[in-house]
Amino acid sequence: MKSKDGVSPMDAHHLNNQPKNFQIKHSNYQCKLYNNEYLYMWEFKMTITVTVQAQLIVGEKQVIESLAPEGSYTAVFEDDGQTGYFYALDESADGNPIKDALHIYNAEDVSDGHIPSDVKIGWSEDSKKCVLLINGYPHGVFDFESKNGYCRSGFPPTISQEWSVFGHAWNDAVDDLFR
Questions:
Q1: How far apart are CA 92 and CA 47, in angstroms?
Q2: Positive/negative CA dihedral, 161, 167, 170, 173
Q3: Rounded distance, CA 120 to CA 55, Å?
């Protein structure tokens, strides 16, 4: 996805168009598609289990739900026609199962939103962390164990005393969650 200023995080690496084994900046990478795939957060290898893959047209209403391979956690991506949000749910919790929400985009700000995007939600080996990938690029992460959500926009501000008490800003520690 590109913002209206034409900048795309994938422009620097073009990972989606690389052969299955390739080198970038002298680091070896291996790409696999579907379950137990290896994806890359910049220069870091992520081992995840992809539980859902879908095609998205930004600004068209769609809900994509992903259940953790084990346990009671669920991640949901929703495009309501105006915004894209990523939600963390704990189905075993009393009351509202929604524990956190991350703003992913405003549809009007995505200049190439009319082009179909590949959406995947993947889970860590322990089923306690999940990542939202759009065209292979991580846009949101939930760590259910430490009760933190991270996104590129850092929005919305913290509204819970239990989850993401220090905010949603992406930081270098996120890269280590899937190693």
A1: 26
A2: negative
A3: 9
pLDDT digits (tens, 9 = 90+) for 112-123: 999 999 999 999
Strands 129-134 and 148-151: unpaired
Cβ neighbours for 5, distance < 8 A, ≥ 6 positions apart: none
Whether pLDDT at 67 is above 70 = yes
Query: Is residue 131 a contact partner of residue 144, using CB atoms and an 8 Å limit?
Result: no
Judging by DSSP bridges, how do beta strands 98-106 and 117-123 pair with one another? unpaired
Nearest partner of 164 among 106, 58, 50, 88, judged by Cα: 88
Long-range contacts, 157-160 (Cβ 8 Å, 24+): 160/99, 160/100
